[in-house]
Design a protein that fits this description.
The chain is of the alpha+beta class. The protein has a single domain, classed as q2cbj1_9rhob like domain (Jelly Rolls). The protein has five helices and eleven strands, in the order H-H-E-H-E-E-H-H-E-E-E-E-E-E-E-E. The strands form two sheets. A seven-stranded antiparallel sheet has the order 1-9-6-11-4-3-2, covered by helices on one side. It has a four-stranded antiparallel sheet with strand order 5-10-7-8, with no helix packed on it. The longest helix is centred in the N-terminal third of the chain and has 17 residues. The radius of gyration is 18 Å and the shape is globular. It starts with a helix and ends in a 10-residue tail after the last strand.
Amino acid sequence: MTSADRDSRSMRRERAVAVAPPDLVAAFQRDGAVCLRGVLGAAELQRLARGIDSNLAAPSPRAIVASRPGDPGLFIEDFCNWQHNADYRATAIHTALPEVAARLMQSATVRLYHDHMLTKEPGTTTRTPWHQDQPYYNIDGGQNVSFWIPVDAVRRASTLEFVAGSHRGPWLMPRTFMDHQAKWFPEGSLAELPDIDGARDRHRIVGWALEPGDAVAFHMLTLHAAAGVDSDRRRRVFSLRYLGDDEARGSAR
Protein backbone atom coordinates (compact mmCIF):
# COMPACT_ATOMS: atom_id res chain seq x y z
CA MET A 1 0.00 0.00 0.00
CA THR A 2 1.38 3.39 -1.00
CA SER A 3 1.42 6.42 1.28
CA ALA A 4 -1.30 7.97 -0.88
CA ASP A 5 -3.46 4.88 -0.34
CA ARG A 6 -2.89 5.07 3.42
CA ASP A 7 -3.77 8.76 3.45
CA SER A 8 -6.95 8.09 1.45
CA ARG A 9 -8.01 5.31 3.81
CA SER A 10 -7.31 7.51 6.82
CA MET A 11 -9.48 10.26 5.35
CA ARG A 12 -12.32 7.81 4.72
CA ARG A 13 -12.11 6.61 8.31
CA GLU A 14 -12.21 10.16 9.61
CA ARG A 15 -15.30 10.89 7.52
CA ALA A 16 -16.94 7.66 8.75
CA VAL A 17 -16.43 8.75 12.37
CA ALA A 18 -17.84 12.18 11.54
CA VAL A 19 -21.00 10.94 9.82
CA ALA A 20 -21.54 7.94 12.12
CA PRO A 21 -20.58 9.04 15.65
CA PRO A 22 -21.33 6.77 18.63
CA ASP A 23 -24.81 8.18 19.25
CA LEU A 24 -25.85 7.49 15.66
CA VAL A 25 -24.41 3.96 15.86
CA ALA A 26 -26.50 3.43 19.00
CA ALA A 27 -29.58 4.76 17.17
CA PHE A 28 -28.98 2.31 14.32
CA GLN A 29 -28.76 -0.57 16.77
CA ARG A 30 -31.94 0.61 18.53
CA ASP A 31 -34.12 1.69 15.60
CA GLY A 32 -32.71 -0.21 12.62
CA ALA A 33 -32.59 2.96 10.49
CA VAL A 34 -30.68 6.25 10.65
CA CYS A 35 -30.02 9.28 8.46
CA LEU A 36 -26.44 10.07 7.42
CA ARG A 37 -25.77 13.65 6.40
CA GLY A 38 -23.01 14.42 3.89
CA VAL A 39 -21.69 10.89 3.61
CA LEU A 40 -20.59 11.51 0.00
CA GLY A 41 -18.58 14.51 -1.13
CA ALA A 42 -19.30 16.54 -4.26
CA ALA A 43 -16.90 14.64 -6.51
CA GLU A 44 -18.14 11.28 -5.19
CA LEU A 45 -21.73 12.34 -5.75
CA GLN A 46 -20.99 13.47 -9.31
CA ARG A 47 -19.31 10.14 -10.04
CA LEU A 48 -22.27 8.18 -8.65
CA ALA A 49 -24.78 10.21 -10.68
CA ARG A 50 -22.71 9.49 -13.78
CA GLY A 51 -22.82 5.78 -12.96
CA ILE A 52 -26.60 5.81 -12.53
CA ASP A 53 -27.13 7.68 -15.79
CA SER A 54 -24.87 5.20 -17.59
CA ASN A 55 -26.87 2.34 -16.09
CA LEU A 56 -30.17 3.95 -17.15
CA ALA A 57 -28.88 4.43 -20.68
CA ALA A 58 -27.95 0.73 -20.93
CA PRO A 59 -29.82 -1.39 -18.36
CA SER A 60 -28.54 -4.88 -17.64
CA PRO A 61 -30.56 -8.05 -18.35
CA ARG A 62 -31.47 -8.00 -14.64
CA ALA A 63 -33.30 -4.66 -14.88
CA ILE A 64 -37.03 -4.61 -14.22
CA VAL A 65 -39.77 -2.03 -14.65
CA ALA A 66 -41.48 -1.91 -11.25
CA SER A 67 -44.18 0.68 -12.01
CA ARG A 68 -47.70 -0.51 -12.67
CA PRO A 69 -49.35 -0.33 -16.11
CA GLY A 70 -50.86 3.09 -16.66
CA ASP A 71 -48.49 4.84 -14.25
CA PRO A 72 -47.75 8.29 -15.73
CA GLY A 73 -44.11 7.97 -14.65
CA LEU A 74 -41.62 5.12 -14.61
CA PHE A 75 -40.02 3.10 -11.82
CA ILE A 76 -37.00 1.11 -12.99
CA GLU A 77 -34.62 -1.03 -10.95
CA ASP A 78 -31.35 -2.75 -11.83
CA PHE A 79 -29.11 -5.02 -9.79
CA CYS A 80 -25.56 -6.32 -9.35
CA ASN A 81 -23.71 -4.04 -11.76
CA TRP A 82 -20.72 -2.92 -9.67
CA GLN A 83 -18.30 -5.25 -11.45
CA HIS A 84 -19.15 -3.68 -14.81
CA ASN A 85 -19.82 -0.08 -13.76
CA ALA A 86 -16.63 1.64 -12.62
CA ASP A 87 -18.53 4.48 -10.94
CA TYR A 88 -20.61 2.03 -8.90
CA ARG A 89 -17.47 0.10 -7.98
CA ALA A 90 -15.68 3.22 -6.79
CA THR A 91 -18.71 4.23 -4.70
CA ALA A 92 -18.95 0.80 -3.10
CA ILE A 93 -15.24 0.43 -2.32
CA HIS A 94 -13.42 3.76 -2.35
CA THR A 95 -15.72 6.00 -0.31
CA ALA A 96 -16.38 6.12 3.42
CA LEU A 97 -19.37 3.77 3.04
CA PRO A 98 -17.54 0.51 3.94
CA GLU A 99 -16.09 2.20 7.04
CA VAL A 100 -19.51 3.54 7.99
CA ALA A 101 -20.96 0.06 7.47
CA ALA A 102 -18.38 -1.43 9.84
CA ARG A 103 -19.27 1.13 12.51
CA LEU A 104 -23.03 0.67 12.18
CA MET A 105 -22.84 -3.14 12.11
CA GLN A 106 -20.19 -3.15 14.86
CA SER A 107 -18.27 -5.58 12.69
CA ALA A 108 -14.55 -6.12 12.10
CA THR A 109 -15.19 -7.26 8.54
CA VAL A 110 -17.29 -5.76 5.76
CA ARG A 111 -18.35 -7.61 2.62
CA LEU A 112 -20.24 -6.12 -0.29
CA TYR A 113 -23.39 -8.16 -0.90
CA HIS A 114 -24.87 -6.36 -3.90
CA ASP A 115 -25.80 -3.05 -5.47
CA HIS A 116 -29.26 -1.91 -6.50
CA MET A 117 -30.26 1.09 -8.62
CA LEU A 118 -33.80 2.47 -8.14
CA THR A 119 -35.06 5.37 -10.23
CA LYS A 120 -38.53 6.90 -10.12
CA GLU A 121 -39.07 9.39 -12.93
CA PRO A 122 -41.21 12.51 -12.35
CA GLY A 123 -44.86 11.76 -11.78
CA THR A 124 -44.40 8.11 -10.82
CA THR A 125 -47.33 7.08 -8.63
CA THR A 126 -46.38 3.47 -7.90
CA ARG A 127 -45.59 2.96 -4.24
CA THR A 128 -42.88 0.69 -2.93
CA PRO A 129 -44.97 -1.35 -0.45
CA TRP A 130 -44.02 -2.14 3.12
CA HIS A 131 -41.58 -5.03 3.31
CA GLN A 132 -38.39 -6.38 4.88
CA ASP A 133 -35.43 -7.05 2.59
CA GLN A 134 -33.74 -9.94 4.35
CA PRO A 135 -36.44 -12.60 3.75
CA TYR A 136 -35.87 -12.09 0.01
CA TYR A 137 -32.12 -12.73 0.37
CA ASN A 138 -30.15 -15.89 1.01
CA ILE A 139 -28.58 -14.54 4.19
CA ASP A 140 -29.27 -15.18 7.84
CA GLY A 141 -26.86 -13.03 9.86
CA GLY A 142 -27.81 -10.09 12.03
CA GLN A 143 -24.86 -7.88 11.10
CA ASN A 144 -25.92 -6.22 7.88
CA VAL A 145 -26.68 -2.77 6.55
CA SER A 146 -28.25 -1.24 3.44
CA PHE A 147 -27.48 2.28 2.25
CA TRP A 148 -30.12 4.19 0.25
CA ILE A 149 -28.26 7.03 -1.48
CA PRO A 150 -30.15 9.58 -3.61
CA VAL A 151 -28.33 11.79 -6.09
CA ASP A 152 -31.40 14.05 -6.33
CA ALA A 153 -33.04 15.96 -3.49
CA VAL A 154 -35.84 13.90 -1.94
CA ARG A 155 -38.85 15.43 -0.24
CA ARG A 156 -40.13 13.92 3.00
CA ALA A 157 -43.29 12.73 1.23
CA SER A 158 -41.24 10.76 -1.33
CA THR A 159 -38.53 9.39 0.92
CA LEU A 160 -38.03 5.91 2.33
CA GLU A 161 -39.96 5.36 5.57
CA PHE A 162 -39.18 2.85 8.30
CA VAL A 163 -40.93 1.22 11.24
CA ALA A 164 -38.38 1.90 13.98
CA GLY A 165 -37.35 -1.20 15.90
CA SER A 166 -38.85 -3.68 13.43
CA HIS A 167 -35.39 -5.09 12.66
CA ARG A 168 -35.71 -7.06 15.88
CA GLY A 169 -38.21 -9.29 14.07
CA PRO A 170 -40.05 -11.38 13.46
CA TRP A 171 -39.30 -12.37 9.88
CA LEU A 172 -42.39 -11.70 7.75
CA MET A 173 -43.59 -13.46 4.62
CA PRO A 174 -41.90 -12.05 1.49
CA ARG A 175 -44.26 -11.68 -1.45
CA THR A 176 -43.98 -10.36 -4.98
CA PHE A 177 -44.96 -6.70 -5.08
CA MET A 178 -47.29 -6.87 -8.07
CA ASP A 179 -49.34 -10.02 -7.44
CA HIS A 180 -48.43 -10.91 -3.83
CA GLN A 181 -47.18 -14.42 -4.52
CA ALA A 182 -45.10 -16.29 -1.92
CA LYS A 183 -42.09 -17.50 -3.91
CA TRP A 184 -39.40 -17.63 -1.23
CA PHE A 185 -41.05 -19.48 1.66
CA PRO A 186 -44.03 -21.88 1.74
CA GLU A 187 -47.41 -20.37 2.52
CA GLY A 188 -48.00 -20.21 6.26
CA SER A 189 -44.35 -20.65 7.25
CA LEU A 190 -43.86 -17.00 8.25
CA ALA A 191 -46.12 -14.37 9.76
CA GLU A 192 -47.90 -12.05 7.34
CA LEU A 193 -47.11 -8.37 7.03
CA PRO A 194 -49.39 -6.23 9.22
CA ASP A 195 -51.34 -3.30 7.74
CA ILE A 196 -48.86 -0.55 8.57
CA ASP A 197 -50.64 2.26 6.70
CA GLY A 198 -53.97 1.30 8.21
CA ALA A 199 -52.60 1.79 11.72
CA ARG A 200 -49.75 4.26 11.41
CA ASP A 201 -50.38 5.66 14.86
CA ARG A 202 -49.50 2.28 16.38
CA HIS A 203 -45.96 2.39 14.99
CA ARG A 204 -43.03 4.76 15.28
CA ILE A 205 -42.48 5.61 11.63
CA VAL A 206 -39.36 7.57 10.73
CA GLY A 207 -38.11 9.11 7.50
CA TRP A 208 -36.07 12.10 6.38
CA ALA A 209 -35.99 14.63 3.59
CA LEU A 210 -32.60 14.19 1.91
CA GLU A 211 -30.18 16.32 -0.05
CA PRO A 212 -27.68 14.93 -2.57
CA GLY A 213 -24.80 13.43 -0.59
CA ASP A 214 -27.06 12.32 2.27
CA ALA A 215 -28.09 8.70 2.75
CA VAL A 216 -30.17 6.51 4.98
CA ALA A 217 -28.77 3.32 6.47
CA PHE A 218 -31.03 0.50 7.59
CA HIS A 219 -30.97 -3.11 8.73
CA MET A 220 -32.26 -5.62 6.17
CA LEU A 221 -35.06 -6.67 8.54
CA THR A 222 -36.34 -3.13 9.11
CA LEU A 223 -39.79 -2.67 7.61
CA HIS A 224 -39.71 0.09 4.99
CA ALA A 225 -41.76 1.59 2.16
CA ALA A 226 -41.77 4.61 -0.16
CA ALA A 227 -44.36 6.64 -2.01
CA GLY A 228 -44.25 7.85 -5.58
CA VAL A 229 -42.67 11.15 -6.63
CA ASP A 230 -44.10 14.51 -7.62
CA SER A 231 -44.33 15.56 -11.26
CA ASP A 232 -41.50 18.08 -10.86
CA ARG A 233 -39.02 15.79 -9.10
CA ARG A 234 -36.90 12.87 -10.28
CA ARG A 235 -35.60 10.39 -7.72
CA ARG A 236 -32.44 8.52 -8.72
CA VAL A 237 -31.18 6.29 -5.91
CA PHE A 238 -28.26 3.88 -5.53
CA SER A 239 -28.44 1.26 -2.81
CA LEU A 240 -25.55 -0.80 -1.42
CA ARG A 241 -25.86 -3.79 0.90
CA TYR A 242 -23.01 -4.92 3.15
CA LEU A 243 -22.60 -7.95 5.43
CA GLY A 244 -20.63 -8.27 8.66
CA ASP A 245 -18.85 -10.87 10.77
CA ASP A 246 -21.75 -13.16 11.59
CA GLU A 247 -23.05 -13.84 8.10
CA ALA A 248 -22.90 -17.46 6.97
CA ARG A 249 -23.40 -17.46 3.21
CA GLY A 250 -25.77 -19.97 1.77
CA SER A 251 -27.71 -20.42 4.99
CA ALA A 252 -31.46 -20.85 4.95
CA ARG A 253 -33.89 -19.92 7.68
